[in-house]
């Protein structure tokens, strides 16, 4: 009768714990520092606030432009508005006028 004995290798029992520690380390690191991790949540919140402020500014500008368009295209053009637009486009002013140019954003 022939018997075969296997020698137990001591390093085999450490494979699963070592792989587990590696996986936990990898996912733990990326859950904190990754593109969608906890640190990026703060950056996304700052970006959200910036975009909200930009949206408010653009909404205000749009309302201003809509008011101007309404005054110009309502059928009855306001004389002051027409005069202002004509002077601006033709770059003309009276001799007794003072002209201040400013940019809207």
Topology:
Blueprint: H1 15-33, H2 38-73, H3 79-90
Could you please describe the fold and organization of this structure?
The chain has 105 residues and is an all-alpha fold. It contains three helices and no strands. The longest helix has 36 residues, at 38-73. The protein is rod-shaped, with a radius of gyration of 36 Å. The model has no long low-confidence stretch (mean pLDDT 85). Keywords: Coiled coil, Membrane, Transmembrane, Transmembrane helix. It comes from Hoeflea ulvae. This is Septum formation initiator family protein. It holds the Pfam family DivIC. The chain crosses the membrane at residues 12-29.
How many strands, which pairing sense, and closed or not: the largest β-sheet? none
Shape estimate: rod-shaped
Helix content: 55-70%
First-to-last CA distance: 96 Å
Average pLDDT value?
85
Q: What Rg do the Cα atoms give? A: 36 Å
Outline the low-pLDDT stretches.
none
Assembly classification: single chain
